[in-house]
Design a protein that fits this description.
By secondary structure, this protein is an alpha/beta fold. The chain is built from 15 helices and seven strands. A seven-stranded mixed β-sheet has the order 3-2-1-4-5-7-6, sandwiched between helices. α8 packs across α11. It is globular, with a radius of gyration of 21 Å.
């Protein structure tokens, strides 16, 4: 970290909009479920005399966060783990004392990679610089790396991962090229994989690198990001107090679609529902009410200052007093 503070190295996306949607107040208790460089946590703490519990699965972010916590006089607690497990993590941290008690006033999730992760070639998230083909957000503490997947998954499985999680229309072509290459030379480096993809995928009109979607797909798969998001949304529903805010910033359509569907379903505004008709007997009371008119996008000024914000989408909702939906109903 070169001795600098994490929030000085990373530009948090849509920071003003996130804080505005959370609306921190004095005495409030908030969760930054994706601590990263600490930008959201710092902004929440600076906005009001409140307390923040920040969660990150990346050990390097946790180490940097402990130094940051010292500057906030016990108002910031850093927890090592996944935001999908936030309920258990908060209970272990004595935030909740009763299993069914909801005591959090706001939860923020930034689903993108931090600049710190992208800028570290040894993490293997980006092909801009050559490095090990890793991509594990937990810093390699268990689990299969992207290289493990690329070199051992059968061709059909690879094609499915790249098509489903990268929304890449040349997925079969890419999987075939990977299988052919690894038969004689294992794929261990980011530049190796990027070149294999570039050799079989034509350049895009938008000038996005042809390897981008494949790298996205492998990262999502390796870290089970969509499963983690679903667990995190369900955990937020159980933890938020009445009128507590949930704010999620996503960066690609698969994430945004998951958040959008969850909030629409939980707010009773999903397709097929109508306020003009009586609810069916099996209908469950809404656990969220949507804030604003739907998705919020970054301003032109922010995109110019921070190109990383270009694909960001923010959705926010407030918790009602209804009981959380059972998990079998949530599926």
């Amino acid at each position: 970290m070169n001795g600098t503070h994490p929030e000085q190295q990373h530009i948090p996306v849509m920071l003003t909009e996130v804080v505005e949607a959370l609306s921190p107040h004095s005495g409030g208790r908030y969760v930054d479920g994706t601590f990263g460089g600490g930008g959201y946590a710092a902004a929440i703490l600076n906005e009001a005399d409140c307390t923040v519990w920040a969660i990150d699965r990346d050990p390097s972010a946790v180490r940097a966060g402990h130094a940051m916590a010292e500057r906030y006089d016990r108002r910031l607690t850093i927890l090592h783990g996944r935001f999908g497990d936030m309920r258990d993590l908060l209970q272990q941290s004595s935030v909740t004392t009763v299993a069914s008690l909801t005591t959090v006033d706001g939860i923020a999730l930034d689903l993108g990679l931090s600049s710190l992760q992208l800028g570290d070639a040894e993490r293997g998230f980006s092909f801009r610089a050559d490095g090990p083909l890793d991509m594990r957000m937990d810093g390699g503490d268990g689990g299969r790396s992207a290289a493990d997947v690329v070199n051992t998954a059968d061709e059909q499985t690879l094609a499915d991962i790249i098509w489903r999680l990268g929304e890449e229309r040349f997925a079969r072509r890419i999987a075939s090229a990977i299988a052919e290459h690894r038969a004689t030379d294992p794929i261990r480096r980011t530049h190796q994989l990027a070149e294999i993809v570039r050799n079989v995928v034509p350049p895009a009109r938008d000038r996005i690198d042809p390897a981008t979607r494949t790298f996205q797909a492998l990262r999502i798969h390796v870290n089970d990001e969509l499963g983690e998001l679903e667990r995190g949304l369900n955990a937020a529903e159980t933890l938020l107090a009445t009128d507590g805010r949930l704010v999620v910033v996503s960066f690609h359509s698969l994430e945004d679609r998951t958040v959008k569907q969850f909030l629409r379903t939980r707010s009773g505004s999903a397709a097929g529902s109508s306020r003009h008709l009586p609810p069916p007997e099996t209908a469950r009371p809404p656990t969220f009410r949507l804030l604003g008119r739907g998705v919020v996008r970054p301003s032109t000024q922010e995109i110019n200052a921070n190109p990383r914000a270009r694909s960001a989408r923010l959705r926010a909702a407030a918790r009602t007093s209804a009981q959380p939906w059972p998990q079998e109903a949530a599926a």
